[in-house]
Input
Amino acid sequence: MASEPTRNLALELVRVTEAAALSAGRFMGRGDKIAADRAAVDAMRVVLNSIMMNAVIVIGEGEKDQAPMLFNGEHVGTGVGPEMDIAVDPIDGTRPLANGTWNAIATVALAPRGTMFDPGPFLYMNKIAVGPETKGVVNIEAPVEHNLQAIARASGKTVEDLTIVILDRPRHDGLIAEVRRVGARIRLIPDGDVAGALMTSWPDSGIDALLGIGGTPEGVLAACALRAMGGEIQGKLYARNEAELRRGREMGYDFEKVLTMDDLVSSEDVFLAATGITDGEFLHGVKYFGSGARTDSLVVRGQTGTVRQIIATHRWDKLSQFSAINYQGSR
Output
């Protein structure tokens, strides 16, 4: 028997990411990562606390960069409504935003209480993410060449046709050399591996896979989105040194375990919103025009598999009448 649709919290989450993007977008190219992050965090918290839910932040952002943060364990929402886990990344790509370059986005995800992976203090993860055409054919423990050949076969391409997103870090020198040896193309990105993972499942992005070590919070956020978008992500926690590895084992974390989509978020009833702050391959950045601004957002719902793109126009004269957020900067 058919039931009534449950409430689509993703349509409320998009207000959160729009607020973060509108506030942080003022800092594009100004070289101040901390001020940009503070603006995004403050705006995100205001709107989160207006949503009818009882949510706990399982994955916050800021600790890794010593920036202002929505901290792990913080309660957000009105306190009335569904009990949820929440993962936030007020700016995925603080460096691109500070430098005025590509693919900075604001993201937030929700899932029922107890269904999100909690990485604790372990902030890095080795990942592989692919789109719907190649879901089920990759294995994070397999050699790079094996995975690239499997992706090519499943997508009807040659390896030379593939484009792989990798974070531009010294730790990836060996990975980059191996991808080049096998013959695939590479898109190096300075930051922003949530965007990189989502591009694998975004039509016409031209991205076939994301490989390499990035943030654990970003991996959970990507898993929430890829559930709805039909893609896949696998991960393994990455210890930066022996002390971190020893600490993790003492806390019960398994650094050899392959974390599947179900490990990263075990419910289909997930929601994610992302709003572009700077221009990127799949979302446009904030465009200001004096009396307001325009935003471009992605909204996904895991239970129905619905993916929406929302282009919104925001008017300062209207918003200023009731919003506690100063979207107009110093004017």
In short: The radius of gyration is 19 Å.
